[in-house]
Design brief:
Blueprint (H helix, E strand, L loop, with lengths): L6 E5 L9 E5 L11 H23 L4 H18 L6 H4 L11 H20 L7 H12 L37 H13 L7 H15 L6 H15 L11 H6 L1 H14 L3 H35 L7 H13 L2 E2 L1 H8 L3 H13 L4 E2 L9 E2 L1 H5 L4
Antiparallel strand pairs: 1-2, 3-5, 4-5
């Protein structure tokens, strides 16, 4: 790591309207030697905790009902880093229940959820690759503010980060004519099994390089963070997307950006890798605690609904559905349980009396009912 050179600054074409310097990163498909004991200790801890988290995903009954909340939490945090102002409560609502002025943000969060879902599904046929990344990016930017910035296509012009113009930018990524070689190198590095580099270290370096390349006109940050989940799943560190690492990056946003910048400015990967491993450790611990709390809450609710007599089978079905969609109205309960309005309304009233649900609109019509205690488990 101490012989690592991040890259160099290159002056733009002298015939360009504005003269500026862009950063050209060095290829990363090369040997890395790890001697820093702090990195080795953090790596061991992160690997152990991911194994424990993965075990919860394997052993918890009906785990698919709980996965959606982890994905929503990750989507909210990752989009929040880019300035999107949608909270968990809003992200869980249907689009028609979102006020018009907030729908753009809502769509960005839900596009992230769709992109991650589709990409995970695609992993059964495609490896983590530029093709998979472009497909996910197309979903990410479809119908939102970045829809005119080449969704699913690598940029064909210069972009920059921060500042009102390229001359005042915080960072200028490599010119577009370098992208093909850099992305090919990135792909080869990720799939190079001869490097004998621990997977989590590979993911940390991959994330730094992807954000430095900045291959798209928009959505690079979200795509880079989404890739972390895909890489963990592809390498069987996780079977399900249960690690919402963007929450850590959002809470320590200045340190996140500073860590990436330090690599470029000081040719020093080690602080970034330590920060990334710290993010994995803390996030995995939180995810494990969340699972423990979910199981405790589920046990309490299942015990409570035994009081409903003949309604118990239907109540169990609704309870499972609420773990995936913890905000529902009477019509949605009707559709899910395939029952009439009176039966759906009565069951919701039973859940309110048992303190499983609470009405959150204050209206007498078009009411929404939320499983508040469950949603709180995903608020950090």
């Amino acid at each position: 790591m101490d012989r690592f050179t991040a890259g160099k600054y290159i002056k733009s074409n002298i015939n360009a309207p504005e003269e500026y310097e862009y950063f050209l990163p060095q290829p990363i498909n090369r040997e890395f030697s790890i001697t820093n004991k702090k990195i080795l200790t953090s790596l061991e801890q992160a690997t152990r905790l991911l194994g424990e988290l993965n075990a919860y995903g394997e052993l918890v009954p009906d785990v698919n009902f709980f996965i959606r909340m982890h994905v929503v939490s990750e989507a909210v945090s990752s989009s929040g880093i880019e300035g999107t102002k949608t909270g968990m409560d809003e992200a869980l609502l249907a689009e028609e229940d979102i006020s018009p002025e907030k729908r753009d943000d809502w769509r960005e969060v839900n596009n992230y959820i769709l992109a991650l879902d589709e990409a995970i599904e695609s992993l059964s046929q495609l490896p983590v690759s530029l093709r998979l990344i472009k497909d996910a990016h197309k979903i990410l930017l479809s119908g939102v503010r970045g829809e005119h910035k080449l969704p699913g296509e690598v940029r064909r012009s210069q972009n920059w980060i921060g500042g009102s113009s390229i001359n005042t930018a915080h960072f200028v990524p490599p010119a577009h004519n370098h992208l093909s070689d850099l992305l090919t190198d990135w792909e080869k590095f990720w799939h190079n099994e001869t490097l004998n580099l621990p997977v989590l270290i590979k993911i940390a370096i991959s994330h730094y390089q992807f954000e430095t390349i900045h291959p798209f006109l928009d959505g690079n940050g979200r795509m880079g963070r989404l890739l972390i989940i895909l890489q963990l799943i592809e390498r069987s560190f996780l079977k399900y997307p249960l690690l919402y690492i963007s929450d850590f990056f959002e809470r320590y946003r200045p340190a996140y950006y500073d860590g990436l910048t330090m690599v470029r400015q000081q040719n020093n990967l080690e602080p970034w890798i330590l920060f990334f491993l710290e993010a994995v450790v803390e996030t995995a611990e939180q995810s494990i605690d969340t699972f423990k709390n979910i199981l405790a809450l589920r046990g309490r609710y299942e015990n409570d609904i035994t009081k409903l007599g003949r309604k118990v089978p239907r109540a169990k079905n609704l309870l499972l559905k609420l773990f995936a969609n913890p905000i529902m109205n009477v019509r949605q309960v009707q559709e899910y349980l395939e029952v009439g309005y009176p039966a759906a309304n009565n069951l919701i009233n039973d859940f309110v009396e048992l303190s499983i649900l609470s009405e959150q609109t204050g209206y007498t019509r078009n009411r929404q009912f939320a499983m508040r205690d469950y949603i709180r488990l995903f608020r950090k």
